[in-house]
Design a protein that fits this description.
mainly beta, two-stranded antiparallel sheet, 13% helix, globular
């Protein structure tokens, strides 16, 4: 079993996790981690019968300092947004201690359909475990 000494929620929201009959809330750390957004010049597009709208092409940039911080703290579980987790995946970040709340198959909703929590997390990378612990961390 993978164990962490600490969890740091780098999203702006508390994260409520439902496991069996237990409910745990992970408060935000006060530090919000976002990808850097670089937008193109705005352009105008039209939808017939609705009018004109403005659009941009957005490229998300990854701050490599963040990847280093994650890598240097393997005993800390860092919780980030799913878009940031996917950006890390695109950059082949080989990190097992970065996860996002699962808002897909394991999301928990109230009677009105609003998200109130999750039953688990989506990890960037599944750790390779063996009898001596996590491979590559001895």
């Amino acid at each position: 079993m993978l164990k962490f000494k600490e969890v740091v929620n780098l999203t702006p929201h508390p994260i409520t996790v439902f496991v069996g009959d237990r409910q745990t809330t992970i408060p935000p750390s006060g530090k919000v981690l976002r990808a850097e957004e670089n937008d193109s010049e705005p352009f105008i597009f039209e939808v017939e019968g609705m009018g004109c709208f403005e659009g941009v092409e957005r490229k998300l940039e990854l701050n490599q300092t963040l990847v280093k911080i994650f890598a240097e703290n393997p005993d800390i579980l860092f919780i980030v947004s799913l878009p940031l987790l996917e950006l890390l995946r695109q950059h082949d970040a080989n990190l097992f201690n970065v996860a996002a709340p699962d808002t897909g198959k394991r999301v928990v909703r109230d009677s009105e359909g609003r998200i109130i929590g999750t039953k688990g997390f989506v990890f960037l990378k599944r750790p390779l475990l063996h009898s001596k612990g996590i491979k590559g961390l001895q």
